[in-house]
Amino acid sequence: MATEAVPPPLPLPNLDDKPHWDGLRRHELLIQKCADCGALRHPPRPICHACRSGRKEWVKASGRGVVYSYTIVPQATHPAWRDKVPYAVVIVELEEDVRLVSNLEGVPNEQIKVGLPVEIVYDDVAPDVTLPKFRVRK
Ligand code: ZN
Asked: If you classify domain 62-138 with CATH, what class do you get?
């Protein structure tokens, strides 16, 4: 029986994170910054976790960091990922001291370890959607 490819679920930007997703489309990693106390936060939120200010701005992050934690997903949670298991989901701690949940490309799962230096790669998965993924930094 032939099976049709199922498209993966894609992010739906909202008022809080739209600048982040727009930046990714331009291949820029933008992180939300409190316009009052300067705290960086990710994922984007309407209120600062440090001072409760609602004022915000966006700063361009380096895209460099290290694997903070990871897990190997052994079973597809969506039909689009059926052929990708087992795959790694990583938490990357950026040099700017914020963390992103992402995927690590080009590394066998058994070689992934905490502290592995990584850098962002921009995966243009649809005409209007780019996902931040990571590869080992050279
Ligand atoms: Zn603040």
From this structure: mainly beta
